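Subgroup meeting minutes
Present: P.N., E.W., G.H.
Scribe: E.W.

1. P.N. recapped why we're keeping a running log of single-chain structure predictions: easier to compare across weeks, and new members can see raw inputs and outputs side by side.
2. G.H. added today's entry (220 aa).
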Amino acid sequence: MSNNTLNLTPEVYEYLQKNSLRESEPLRELRKLTQSMSTAGMQISPEQGQFMQLLVKLSGAKKTLEIGVFTGYSTLSVALALPANGKIVACDINKEWTQIAARFWETAGVRAKIDLRLAPALETLAELVAAGESDSFDFAFIDADKLNYLKYYEFALQLVRPGGLIVIDNVLWDGDVAKAEVNDASTKVLRELNQKIYRDERVMISMLPVGDGVTLALKK
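Output recorded in log:
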């Protein structure tokens, strides 16, 4: 048995997508549009979006939280998996990017499920706590500025109910977290977060080599 995860060469990755990815037309069109942008690297991979849809379905989630929207691919993925009465509180600060997102949410017929909060996420999260919404979310996804990841994690842990799931993106950071010579601020925060979650007895965890690395943290 190999100690290494299968190396995804371009050929294997193409095979994976052809034999696994079931991407709806709005998702496909949004992904293509975003790929033309200089900031396209911020978008999650399509197989990650599909994986999150599966997690939402498996968990029976109805009320979800998203910290970092960008052009809305992950939000749309989750919204499509939610029941008709499902809700996403989506946090971002960029009006231009989220206008693109809203257009595709509308096209896909899920706009009513998404409560977009255009404000610094830490402010929105604090407002949710102050409004008595702790322990009320079924699912949370963190994919925003890395320097605040530690704070986002703590807020998500407070807002998600026991048995709820937190999904954290970019935990492998293109492999930089494993390179001792790389010590920029974002990489150092991600290393600290990974160690914190590893030791955190409040959650059950699994770090997976999906996309740029995804950690699943199930609140006990």
